[in-house]
Specification:
The complex is a heterodimer of chains A (166) and B (203).
Chain A (H helix, E strand, L loop, with lengths): L1 H22 L6 E9 L7 E10 L7 E5 L3 E12 L2 E6 L11 E4 L4 E8 L8 E8 L3 E10 L13 H4 L3
Chain B lengths: L1 H30 L15 E4 L4 E3 L8 E6 L6 H16 L7 E6 L7 H8 L6 E5 L2 H10 L4 E5 L5 E6 L2 E4 L5 E5 L5 H12 L6
Parallel strand pairs in B: 3-4, 4-5
Antiparallel strand pairs in B: 1-2, 1-5, 3-8, 6-7, 8-9
Helix pairs in contact in B: 2-5
The chains are: A alpha+beta (166), B alpha+beta (203).
């Protein structure tokens, strides 16, 4: 009986700890940093969320799903302009985050596309979003909405985007 | 010394590459592969409807230079960025801004109705007009302006659009002057628009 009761106590402790863990910005192996979304034009049915995914583990990981109440469907897309043509695709096989490496989702590159936006995103509001990783599991973050003209989270170096060679 | 020479060589190489890429991307489409200006190959007659519900043709734009951009409202990134850039440049042009017309043509006429275009454009400079039409009418104007677009189905049964992401700058006589590529810096874009607004824009 005694080992069982110990197990029960530990189980309760884990269960109690889990909600707090889920609301953080990362797990022990993956950090979701500086998430932000861009305010959307009136009536827009799509939007984009940006962030940095920082893999602190020694093995590559990838998000297998993204969910949020603000839209019907969320997908990670790659956007690029080739020969003056804009192309946007869902990433086949998922976006791989290399071992001990990071991937930046930003305007003009990767983004989480919000498909079927339930209402426009307005500056100053915040919404929850959950990423599910193959290895790191579920990570929930709160996404602030920035001005439509923003190029990066206000905490970051907004000028960097402009300096990049295309 | 050696390191500095390497850096200079690398920079020179990068510069040449960028210059060549720019020429290929933005000059060749206007001049054709022969190098001779083929100014008649961009623009042409069209009949569409604008976001106020009014019928518009190439004559609606006659006599005033204009900018024309092709996109769609379900576009999460490049279209709002471009329309926002254009709105900022229009504001910076000051009184010159009213010498130009600004047109956003949808490449997704099935979803972009008169009403949805009007609502969408209310978030940008009010001088930007939206044009839509039947799929055949959009195909015709895209062909005339040498705009590439393609519907790309997604796994969930929806679709996105691949499309040319440059802004065309057209003279008052429908002569193509230049283009503003995606993410052009403000100073260069405004200089191009100021030139377009001049009594005789130079290409």
């Amino acid at each position: 009986m005694r080992p069982y009761s110990k197990f029960a106590v530990v189980s309760v402790m884990i269960a109690a700890a889990f909600p707090a863990f889920a609301q953080g910005t990362g797990s022990s192996t993956m950090a979701v940093e500086q998430p932000w979304a861009r305010a959307t034009p009136a009536g827009a049915k799509t939007g984009a969320v940006y962030m940095t995914l920082d893999n602190k583990s020694g093995t590559a990981d990838r998000p297998t799903g993204v969910s949020s109440d603000v839209a019907d469907k969320l997908q990670i897309h790659e956007m690029k302009v080739e020969n003056g043509v804009m192309k946007m695709r869902e990433i086949a096989g998922g976006l791989s985050i290399p071992a001990s490496g990071s991937v930046v989702l930003k305007p003009g590159s990767y983004h989480v596309m919000l498909i079927g936006l339930k209402k426009p995103l307005t500056v100053g509001e915040k919404f929850p979003l959950t990423l599910t990783f193959e290895k790191a599991g579920n990570i929930s973050v709160t996404v602030p909405v920035q001005a439509m003209g923003a190029t990066q989270d206000k905490g970051g170096m907004g000028k960097m985007d402009k300096m990049e060679m295309k | 010394m050696r390191a500095r020479q390497w850096i200079m060589a690398a920079l020179a190489g990068l510069f040449s590459f960028t210059a060549a890429a720019l020429v290929i991307l933005y000059v060749v489409p206007f001049r054709g592969v022969s190098g001779a200006p083929t100014t008649t190959s961009i623009g042409g007659p069209f009949t569409l409807v604008d976001d106020t519900g009014a019928t518009v043709t190439e004559k609606t734009l006659a006599g005033k230079p204009y900018t024309m951009y092709f996109g769609y409202t379900f576009c999460p990134d490049v279209c709002p960025t471009t329309l926002l850039d254009l709105s900022r440049w229009i504001k910076k042009l000051g009184p010159d801004a009213d010498r130009l017309n600004y047109v956003f043509v949808t490449v997704d006429p099935e979803r972009d109705t008169v009403e949805s275009l009007h609502t969408y454009l209310s978030s940008f400079d009010k001088r930007i007009r939206g044009y839509t039409g039947t799929p055949a009418e959009i195909a015709q104007i895209a062909k005339e302006y040498r705009v590439y677009y393609r519907k790309v189905p997604t796994d969930d049964g929806g679709y996105t659009m691949d499309h040319s992401a440059v802004i065309y700058l057209m003279g008052p006589d429908d002569k193509p002057i230049t283009v503003i590529p995606y993410q052009e810096d403000d100073a260069s874009a405004i200089a191009k628009l100021k030139n377009l607004a001049a009594p005789t824009p130079t290409s």
